Amino acid sequence: GIARSAARPSLSSSAGLTQSYDGVATGDEAGRKLTLSASASMPIYAGGAIRGGVRAAKERVEAGRASLRGTESDVFSDVVAAYMDVMLSRALVELNRNQVQVLTTNLEATRDRFEIGDLTRTDVAQSEARLALASSALVKAEGNLVTAEQNYLRLTGGPADDLSPPPPLPALPETVAAATDIAINEN
User: Fold this and answer.
1) Helix (H), strand (E), coil (C) string for the chain
2) pLDDT at 1 over 70
3) Could you tell me which of 184, 92, 109, 183 has the C-alpha nearest to residue 144?
4) Which of 59, 105, 134, 144 sits at a 20 to 30 Å CA gap from 159?
């Protein structure tokens, strides 16, 4: 619109009022003078500048749309990655909790066997060390989960409370030729 307006006629006007006080009454309303002017113009030849300006404006609009699509794609990718990070972190926390439970039970059994003289103090210490290592891995996994959930909240604006598991991946093609056909048809 703005670029096309350069090819259209334009109209401009101006008005002015001057007043002088020279101490002498001249009969022309105490030295007041009102001036009005108007002008109109129509471009005849602009050397292609108008057409180039219109084309440049259209290209800027298209560039803005492409930039928006790129930003949308980046945000979508970031949200999917955050979603998958939350799902992975939750699974790792659960695995580490199970590991701590198993090693806690194992430590109790090791201590019982030590009391009856079947194992040595070294066996108990090794069991305690395995449990301590698993406990620290659980704390780290829980910290990673908090980080993943906060990143999800930052990107989506909502908490990662009831996330559904991702859908299963589609089956792979039976042969290389079938995979090639799918790639050609869907690309």
Assistant:
1) CHHHHCCCCEEEEEEEEEECCCCCCCCCCCCEEEEEEEEEECCCCCCCHHHHHHHHHHHHHHHHHHHHHHHHHHHHHHHHHHHHHHHHHHHHHHHHHHHHHHHHHHHHHHHHHHHCCCCCHHHHHHHHHHHHHHHHHHHHHHHHHHHHHHHHHHHHCCCCCCCCCCCCCCCCCCCHHHHHHHHHHHC
2) no
3) 92
4) 134
Q: Is the pTM of this model over 0.70?
A: no
**CA 119 to CA 103: how far, in whole Å?**
17
Amino acid in the structure at residue 129: A
pLDDT number for residue 36: 82
